[in-house]
Amino acid sequence: MENNAPGASIFAVSANDADLNQNAEISYSFVDNRQQEEIASSAYFTINSKNGNIYALRSFDYEQQKHFQVKVQAQDAGSPPLSSTTFVNVIILDQNDNAPIIVSPLTWNNSVTVEVMPRSTYPGYLVTKVIATDEDSGQNARLSYEFLEASDPSLFTVGLLSGEIRATRAFSDQDIFAVRVVLCVKDNGQPSLSSSATISFIVMSNVTEKSFDQRDEPRHSEFFSGINSYLIIIFGSTSFLFLIIILCLLTLKCRQDRNTTEIYSSAVCCCNERNSTDGFNRTPTGRDPLNYSGAVQTGSYHYSVCLSPESSKSDFLFLKPCHSTLPFNDRSVRDSAARN
């Protein structure tokens, strides 16, 4: 049995010898079996060498060590001495020395709070389950559950062996209250050990369920049709304005491209007949090219300056000779041929 007193006799070994006198005198001792035991048997037991009584040197704990095996040798006093050995199995018996421990639901200072939703309950509804453990074995670990106290015993019941706490009736939204019960868990040992916990059941209003119900309620079709009409008008107006803006931007872009093309195509060569004594004359106008004339040695020459629209950004001028004997149209054609 565990929790024994140190020094108590736990077993006795006896041997017989057919010899007489000194050859029949037997002594007992332990033989260490290091292959099977990490600690020598002499650390736990001692044996009387005369009568073979075995004594325990310490108190044993069933939860830590359940079984021992010691090797005992009986030897006579003859010459040469003869001996024989045997194994003694020491089995520690469990004693009900551990009280049950409640592991679920998790308790704090032996109390716990459980919330109950009214619409979730019905007769036999499983509110919670109490789970307890016992380190003992056999009947000492067989547990039973019961209510010691209850502020309203008619609301909940507990399973005797399962620990399941169930509702006895359905709750409504008006049943907003708190119920306090004291649960006792006890084992079947002799004497019986027990543990208790206070469980507070709080019946709460279904705030979440009500919000879900309100969302799930069907709404009037007239309300939906009015909203749909407003949305269609808003989206249609927005799309129409966006289309008008796109068309305006495209129109402005086309006009800018056309003006740019006209400016580039307006670069033509012009010639004005001047006398050789006129020198260079510069008469710039909006789209008309710049005309310059000048005298070189004895011949009379006329030059026409053709400027591109980007000429304002450069100081380079390209002078082309124009023949006075040719009409203006021929000069332009010849100048075009010269460019090509």
From TrEMBL:
<dbReference type="InterPro" id="IPR002126">
    <property type="entry name" value="Cadherin-like_dom"/>
</dbReference>
<keyword id="KW-0677">Repeat</keyword>
<dbReference type="Pfam" id="PF00028">
    <property type="entry name" value="Cadherin"/>
</dbReference>
<feature type="transmembrane region" description="Helical">
    <location>
        <begin position="230"/>
        <end position="252"/>
    </location>
</feature>
<keyword id="KW-0812">Transmembrane</keyword>
<keyword id="KW-0130">Cell adhesion</keyword>
<keyword id="KW-1133">Transmembrane helix</keyword>
<keyword id="KW-0325">Glycoprotein</keyword>
<keyword id="KW-0106">Calcium</keyword>
<dbReference type="Pfam" id="PF16492">
    <property type="entry name" value="Cadherin_C_2"/>
</dbReference>
<dbReference type="InterPro" id="IPR020894">
    <property type="entry name" value="Cadherin_CS"/>
</dbReference>
<dbReference type="GO" id="GO:0005886">
    <property type="term" value="C:plasma membrane"/>
</dbReference>
<dbReference type="GO" id="GO:0007156">
    <property type="term" value="P:homophilic cell adhesion via plasma membrane adhesion molecules"/>
</dbReference>
<dbReference type="InterPro" id="IPR032455">
    <property type="entry name" value="Cadherin_C"/>
</dbReference>
<dbReference type="InterPro" id="IPR015919">
    <property type="entry name" value="Cadherin-like_sf"/>
</dbReference>
<dbReference type="InterPro" id="IPR050174">
    <property type="entry name" value="Protocadherin/Cadherin-CA"/>
</dbReference>
<keyword id="KW-0472">Membrane</keyword>
<dbReference type="GO" id="GO:0005509">
    <property type="term" value="F:calcium ion binding"/>
</dbReference>
<feature type="domain" description="Cadherin">
    <location>
        <begin position="117"/>
        <end position="220"/>
    </location>
</feature>
<feature type="domain" description="Cadherin">
    <location>
        <begin position="2"/>
        <end position="102"/>
    </location>
</feature>
<keyword id="KW-1003">Cell membrane</keyword>
<keyword id="KW-0732">Signal</keyword>
<protein>
    <recommendedName>
        <fullName>Cadherin domain-containing protein</fullName>
    </recommendedName>
</protein>
